[in-house]
């Protein structure tokens, strides 16, 4: 008997299709399959639009939060006590504002993914956004999630890892999400002024930076290292939020508060940090960002994203070396990835996430704009609410986590809806081979051709085993 | 494994109520006449719908599909109507239903997409014409001051064109149609990763369980009638039905399909009330199916089929047919019912008579490529 591979025998995928679908966000019916797929990917670095039109009009989250806090204060002053009814109304309005902002940000992200001419870089934005995850678990964080990706991730996706890490850790979204704004040095001036308030250190951000964002779990740091780093991080905060009365403080931006910073020299992972103020944690963060442990951590995640749930060790090693020798220069790491045969294996390496599937379905049916399709609600139905994995670890990148039966049935229903909204406006028989060039299986092509309606054929194309994977 | 397969086939059969695509499109014109076009997507089998039991070759070709059940309502010495079309049979008895058998569009190949495109555009080649004949018909009528109703989803090809028309979708998230579910199941069956996930999805959800009341054929018929009876509402409607592609187990599947169609037509009649006397409903499909039954109790893509006219305006109680016969030498390419009537000619004729327009002019406007010969006449009560 012939030995069976644990991986299902899947149809072969062409290099052009790999470039378009595995590295990109899905082909569009009018895309010409790239003659030189690797060149096509690398050429995108020169054309990436950091701030696409879709993002430019997003409202500032911090301003909304500050307005809400002012209302609360006014309510208390007006009534001389906490008026529960008024506060309830204000809170309700605030939550609605935040949801509106969240949905607008999801639409902007989608529009950007549909219109982009640099889909590989856009995919990397989504990758890094999930790596430096802020989960929309409460209204304050929810308000910021769109701005976080726009301001902390996009500008650095083609830069150095350390710069992206700094932007992410200093973004209001992260500082609020991981409770950094509550962290006060025990021996700081702020603590001394209000001894009765007993505010102190919060280690959350310090721990997640080390465990999730840079070094990786079980990479050799101790609890003492985390605590020391947390001390170094004190004072990292957001302008204008909470009890802050400092004039001109911008609630949309990072602010260092020297009064909250724990004085003194810190020793983390055996290295001494004697910098003043903000620069202390910044120096430690840069040290982490350039650590060999971080190189392996990032390399593993990139390999898993592009080469399959079980990352090939040789690819991880090559990416890590590239990361280290280039001092975290991300385009250099991407070039190593694009040059690696493990990322180009002709079998699909990944079952698409709900987000990837949705974007590729919209692109594959020729949509350049999201229009009136509400993507936020759609992603919730498909099982992965955008920017809300519910954990600072982000979504794990393993298909079993999202390829459930209910989610699969929902894809079929959504596909039918997409198909019926297009109807006879698109011929799946001609589109399918264009968006899966050289890769469409005979079985899928056959079933598409036999579908009893044009709309049904489009739906079938979108939920075919070929299209569900990349 | 066996249990699962039984479950799947039972689900597909039992979901007959889903056969209606949630697609209803409407056009507004100032007239008291109503015209409804119901398309049967998937190539409905005319030989099983209006059975030529008087043809000596019929039993040999089709006996297995009829089996021991009743042949249906005998309309004359040659034809019997499928037993599930009980309401239609009653309409026929009241002079409100007319059938044209062995009819086809100019299309002679066997692709659903292309066949539907030819049927809906009125071209004689797929994709040769961009807009639809039903939209061009609207251009021939005086414009209403009342704009068309607009409620989302999609306009079928037959109603696409220069005149703005409305479409309505009864429910937000449609359950997947039978045809899609069956094809998805076939593709996932061969996929070791997707197969168990999909089997679980089907078991936990149960295909028929979530059928919303608003999407069943009766509700759709009623809904259509409610639009058509609004004082300044639309007077032209198109309904899409899916699920006619009966390659396997046709006996049960077609019975379900026809039961739904019959209920939809009755609901339309009842909902229209007094307006039924002003109404003509055309039911047609893109092409027919093979004369002989295939190896899995179904039929494959063929050529000619049957078209129906029902409604109070129809000069019914008649079958119009230049019957070509089912003997092997009489079949089209030795396999299909041979077309002897032009579907385009029927459409042009019924459209002209519905709105009291000139037959020739309607023929030229709806079917510019002059493949129809003369539009049929004497279809409706004058």
UniProtKB/TrEMBL annotation, chain A:
It comes from the Bacteria. InterPro entries: DUF1800 (IPR014917). This is DUF1800 domain-containing protein. The lineage of its organism: Bacteria, Pseudomonadati, Pseudomonadota, Alphaproteobacteria, Sphingomonadales.
From TrEMBL, chain B:
InterPro entries: DUF1501, TAT_signal. Pfam families: DUF1501. This is DUF1501 domain-containing protein. It comes from Sphingomonas paeninsulae.
